[in-house]
Amino acid sequence: xxxxxxxxxxFLLLAGPALGxxxxxxxxxxxxxxxxxxxxxxSVCPQDSRLVVLxxxxxVDVVRIVREDRPRVIVAVGDExxxxxxxxxxxxxxxxxTLGLRNSxxxxxxxxxxxxxxxxxxVDVLQAFKAKRVGIIYNTARSGAYVNRAAAxxxxxxxxxxxxxxxxxxxxxxxxKEMDSGIDALWMVPDPIAVVKETLTGYFGFSxxxxxxxxxxxxxxxxxxxxxxxxxxxxGLGRQAGEMALKILKGAxxxxxxxxxxxxxxxxINPVVLQHLEMSVPPRYSSAxxxxx
Length: 293
Description:
The structure is a single chain. The protein is of the alpha/beta class. The chain has helices at 2-15, 32-44, 62-69, 79-84, 101-104, 119-128, 140-156, 171-178, 200-210, 234-249, 271-276, and strands at 23-27, 49-53, 73-77, 93-96, 110-113, 133-138, 160-165, 185-187, 214-216, 228-232, 265-269. The strands form two sheets. Strands 7-6-8-9-10-11 form a six-stranded mixed beta sheet, with helices on both faces. It has a five-stranded parallel beta sheet with strand order 2-1-3-4-5. Helix 9 links the parallel strand 8 (185-187) and strand 9. The radius of gyration is 23 Å and the shape is elongated.
């Protein structure tokens, strides 16, 4: 009887990890954008999961959670979330809404959805505004690869590109002052050096002074002075990450799944800003005008 008892106990201990969950969701903070991503994820990947919101705790040892809980896949939402799993090597990681994904993607267990919308979508907007010469301010380490692709796409469409590299946020003001007077649009890219809270007034002040539209990567900038923006559908981003996680849960290796770009996005136009710039809404985007009341 005692031998039988020990056999049952050993079996239960060995079976313990199998009673865990499939997905560990690590969210940088509790904000509307991240919450929408998680909702979108769960709508297509309803597997058992645990959600850890880092901002809810003073400090969280996510590596320990992974070691003890043994989830089959980790979904990191935001840069802090991705940083918290940098030492995880054996568990697949799907990163979403993070600028650090491209660097982390060199690790074979990491893949995900980029924050950079395909450059061609921005080129379409620039062409609708009849832009012939566009300026981009960026930091090579943070967005250089994307900017190179963006510049190539614009030039293929017959648009000249003026690039200004900055090393610190403070350099952005000087870059704007030195910007070629011949440009007829500013293309803002997701870059934590060139585009931060402190530099936004510089972009939109430049826009009004030079009567040059700013084309941004987020609709949040429209109320601050951007003329147009390509806005990522956060729930769509979550659904896209959910589909990627399902592939991994079915046996796909993260290294076999290349980093994807956001599929669900839309153009938004601020007609009030265009009015100040003495410009009109491009006909093809007449239905993309945001409410001004």
